[in-house]
Design goal:
- This protein is mostly helical.
- It contains 9 helices and no strands.
- Helix 1 crosses helix 9 and helix 2 crosses helix 9.
Length: 212
């Protein structure tokens, strides 16, 4: 059971955060920076994203409870949001939107701030990844499940960091066609996972209704 949860968590977080798709955006945002500056930006952006997403893993359900939002309702809403992201990936809309966000800071390029915006927020720890970690936290079985989720999150963010450091080589190796194929495959996988979340949430909402 834990193995299945870890596998699903890794697939969802890897697809949602999309380390491969972030690599060319990192290159564009850090254009003109020295190797040391690029490394510093990568460390700061990934570190801040890890902190934010871990906060939502351990406090996300409490926030929902304070706001009066049931977990099944959030599961449906989060699943729908992830499905929209999946559609954008399949039809190549997500990368375009992220590129536009990156271009907004190009004219006022400040290397001391790009690690926070737009890299950490919203490109790495955006609404989709926040929704994903809260949904996965709800599926985690006790503290063991939460620790496993944190470990998976660190593994995915480590892959982001590696992709950032290897971004230049990766872009030359993959090329635009391979990147497009990988993004679409990940989009289909995320669509299937999001539909499952919506279906589970709907069934839970039905079970919560009082019998007539």
């Amino acid at each position: 059971m834990l193995t299945e949860f870890v596998a699903n968590a890794f697939a969802m977080l890897f697809v949602t955060i999309d380390p491969i798709g972030l690599a060319p955006l990192y290159l564009a945002i850090t254009a003109g920076a020295s190797a040391a500056q690029k490394r510093s930006i990568a460390i700061k952006s990934v570190g801040l994203s890890a902190f934010l997403l871990i906060v939502f893993i351990f406090a996300g359900s409490s926030v929902l409870s304070v706001m009066g939002i049931s977990q099944p309702a959030f599961r449906v809403a989060g699943g729908l949001l992830l499905f929209i992201i999946a559609v954008e990936m399949v039809f190549e809309l997500r990368q375009k939107r992220k590129a536009e966000s990156a271009e907004k800071v190009a004219d006022t390029h400040d290397l001391s701030h790009v690690a926070v915006f737009p890299l950490a927020i919203p490109l790495i720890s955006g609404p989709a990844s926040i929704s994903a970690v809260i949904l996965l936290e709800q599926q985690a079985d006790g503290m063991t499940g939460l620790l496993a989720l944190v470990a998976v999150l660190f593994l995915v963010l480590l892959s982001v960091f590696v992709m950032f450091l290897a971004a230049s080589k990766l872009e030359r190796i993959l090329g635009p066609t391979a990147q497009m194929i990988i993004t679409r495959l990940f989009g289909v996988l995320l669509a299937a996972l999001s539909v499952q979340f919506v279906a589970d949430g709907i069934f839970q909402l039905i079970e919560m209704q009082p019998a007539s």
